[in-house]
Structure formats: structure tokens, C-alpha cells
Amino acid sequence: MLIDLDHSVRMKGNLALEERQSLTGTIKFMALERLEHARDTGKSIRRTCRHDLESFFYVFIVGCIEYEDVSADKAKNLDRWCTNEVENNFINKSYGVVHFDKEILKKFTTSFKGLKDLAKMLRIILFNDDGEYIETPQDCGPLYRKIIKAFNETIEDIKGKI
């Protein structure tokens, strides 16, 4: 699946020419390591499989919080993850990951409350129990398998319930 075509970069062979110079992608879904590096150096770093899985995690979380038809006064969002300041985005997202129950899970809309356990599992896989960032492993296979297993277990749990 192709996403973020509005943030695409020019490729030469298998290498993105601008990837290390400019931060590309949807900021709201960007991995913490990439935000931190951009904050500290003003440049981007090469995306990894770990970054992609973390971005997928954020897409999932945003969906569980922002995509339900609720009245404006009850609507929750994660717009603090998507400001014009990379440092603010990094700080706000980091805080949400560390204080996951209070900052993220409590905002899940009614339709997605049944996915809180999956969200907790994904967070632990990507950030451990304490919310600390895990480096990109040499082999991403085990990380992918843990994510897939968490989804498969959730699918089995909700079969016939919806």
C-alpha cells in the first residue's frame, strides 16, 4: 500500500537522495527517533523497519481516538503530535508513550475501547513496559512476528463479538 505521496522523495536506484537532509512523512505518525534526530540536528535519518512499525502503531492509535462520530465537545485528538515545531511534537508524543494509560488509552472512543489491550501489547512490543524507546534490531523479523501475533490474538478474541 502506498501512502503519503505528498511527502515522497526523489529516488536514485534504491537510495532516497533527500532522505537524510529533509524530514519527510506525516509528522503525526513519525517515529520518535526520527523526530528526536531532526530536533537535535535539523536533519533526518534513514527510515528503518522499526520506524515503519512505530508509525503504523501511531496510525492505529489515532484511528482509535479520532475516528468516531462524536459530538464536538466529546471529541479527542492528538493534534499536539502535529505542530509546526518538531521539538513540541517529540515531547508531546514521548509523553503520550510513557504515560500511555493516562494520555492515550483514556481517549479511546467507545467503538474502539475493545482494542485497548491490543494497543497496550503493541506499546510494550515497541517501547517495553516503561515506554522507553527500543533501537532498531539487526533483524526485524522477530519484531514483525510479535506485532502480527498481537493482532492475530486480538482477532481471535473478538471473533463473533462484533
Report on this model:
This protein has 162 residues and is mostly helical. The protein has one domain. It is 46% helix and 2% strand. It has helices spanning 32-41, 49-66, 86-98, 100-103, 116-127, 141-158; strands at residues 11-12, 15-16. 17% of the residues are buried.
Entry keywords:
mainly alpha, 6 helices, Pkinase_fungal, Bgt-51723
Give a short overview.
This protein has 162 residues and is mostly helical.
Record the SSE blueprint.
Layout: E1 11-12, E2 15-16, H1 32-41, H2 49-66, H3 86-98, H4 100-103, H5 116-127, H6 141-158
Antiparallel strand pairs: 1-2
InterPro entries: Pkinase_fungal
Organism: Blumeria graminis f. sp. tritici
Protein name: Bgt-51723
Average residue-wise pLDDT: 85
Quaternary organisation: single chain
Number of domains: 1
Q: The biggest beta sheet, please?
A: 2 strands, antiparallel
Which runs of at least 5 residues are low in confidence (pLDDT < 50)? none
How much helix, percentage-wise, in residues?
Answer: 40-55%
Distance between the termini: 26 Å
User: How much beta, percentage-wise?
Assistant: under 5%
Count of DSSP helices?
Answer: 6
